[in-house]
Structures are given as C-alpha cells and as structure tokens.
Amino acid sequence: MFTATDFDKLQQIMDESPEKKELLQKLLDSQKMTISSISHEIRNPLTLVYSTLQLIESQHPEVTTYKYWDSMRADIEYMTLLLEELSSYNNGEALRLSAIDCTSFLRPIVLSFAASLAECDIEFTSRLEPDLPVISGDAVKLREVVLNLLRNAKDAVGSDGSIYFHAFVEDKLLHISVTDDGCGIPQEDIEGIFQPFVTHKQGGTGLGLAIGRRIASAHGGSLTVISVPGRSTAFTLSLPIEKDT
Questions:
Q1: Quick one: pLDDT at residue 44?
Q2: Beta strands 173-180 and 222-228: pairing type?
Q3: Are 123 and 164 in contact (CB under 8 A)?
C-alpha cells in the first residue's frame, strides 16, 4: 500500500503534465478498486462468522467460559474494525461536500464527548470561538476526524488528566485543536504516526491518523501535531475558509 507521503509525491508528479496525471490516476484508481474489492470480499464472510458466534453464545451460554473464546471474539472484532478503517482510508479523498456551519457542527460533538467522560476523572474543557465560519466540507468525514482526535486524547490521559478542545480562526483557516496532558509522543515517533499501520496504542489499527490526514488533505487542509514527551500533545486540524464570492 502507498503511504501518505507516496501519495503526496505522486500528486506532485501528476501536476507536471496532463499525460502523467492521466496515467498515474489510472494506476491509483486501479489500486483503490483492488483494495475495495478485497475488503468487501473479506468483510462479508467475516460478518457471517461473527453472527454465527453470537448465535452460538445465545443458544449455548456456557461457551463463553471456554478457553480462548473471548480472544477469538476480540480477534474477529479487530479484523472487522481493520477492514472498516482500511475502507475509510481508501476512500478518504472521496468527499460529499455541503455547507457546514462550524458552530452547529462542533457543538454536538463536544457535548457528546463530554457526556462520555461522566464516569471518569478526566477534565474536559472546550472553547468554540464566536462567529465560527461556514465552510464547504464533508460533514461525515470531518466528524470522524474530530472524534478520532478526541478518542486518542482520552486514551493518552488514561483514567485522569485533562483535555482541551479549541476551535478558532487564524490566517484565513479554521483550526480545530485537541490538546491532552498525557505522556506525549517521543520525537523519533512523530514522523511515522501519520503513516498507515503505524501505531503505538494497544489494539489500534494504525489507520486513524492516516485517515485523518488524508481527509484533511482532500479538503485542502492539514492535520499536524506538536508534542512534548512527558507533558502534552496537541493535534490541530486546519481547514480553509472559502472567500465570499
């Protein structure tokens, strides 16, 4: 699979001439179709296997006490998640654009995340600056990116700690930042965290941040990180604000 950096390099080559663009676009489209087909063919029987396990459990509850049963279920759930995220990564550049009122879009996400922390000691603070703009974007995919950043922050701080969410406008860009005071990211790992299948989180697929960066790039924006090991990590999703015409 191409990495995010490889896609950026191919895009630069494609911009050099129409002939190169046409040829490379055919190659990229072929790769995406192959990934989609493989993912689809695996996901369907995997879903049937998982449904069968659930049926067995309902009819024979004693199987849940069998050795390796829980780990088998966990493995199938992980494989299903991996296929879903692989599909999201593969289709990260396919956008369904609409007008997004950023305040109305972000407020429910923030409130929902705050509610999810009710049973733990994590301190969550959010600030949506006044008069956030209306932008053109894919609301479903942008919501996926923001929620993933918040979930990552929650994982980073553990059972306590603090998370700060901030949405603001600067330099004609909408910035959505998520900062946590968790363990931070070692500098030697920073370069690789946006690459597919690179993860330092137990049970992670290594696709979440890669998906986020692809979606940000497809919107003409960026997803960046600043981390101080042992102190804090801040991820920022930056999206362009269209000028009035």
A1: 74
A2: unpaired
A3: no
Which amino acid makes up residue 13? I
Taking the C-alpha atoms of residue 173 and residue 221, their distance in angstroms, rounded to an integer, is 8
Q: How many CA atoms lie within 13 A of 151 on its CB side?
A: 11
> Per-10-residue mean pLDDT for the chain, 245 residues long?
55 64 58 59 77 90 89 81 69 81 96 91 96 93 92 89 96 96 87 76 71 91 92 95 60
Strand partners, 99: 136
For residue 94, give the 3-state DSSP assignment. Answer: coil
Find out whether 152 and 219 touch, Cβ atoms under 8 Å. no
Dist. CA 231–CA 238, nearest whole Å: 23
Residue 226: strand pairing partners: 234
SS3 of the chain: helix, strand, coil, percent, to 5: 55, 20, 25
Each residue's pLDDT tens digit, 178-213: 999 988 888 888 878 888 776 666 655 667 888 899
User: What is the total residue count of the chain?
Assistant: 245
The answer to whether the Cα torsion of 153, 154, 159, 160 is positive or negative is positive
Q: How far is CA 194 from CA 112, 141, 197, 205, in A?
A: 26, 17, 9, 12
User: Where do we find the tokens 């690789």?
Assistant: 192
Measured from the Cβ of residue 60, the count of other Cβ atoms closer than 10 Å reads 10
Tell me the C-alpha distance between 240 and 245, whole Å.
15
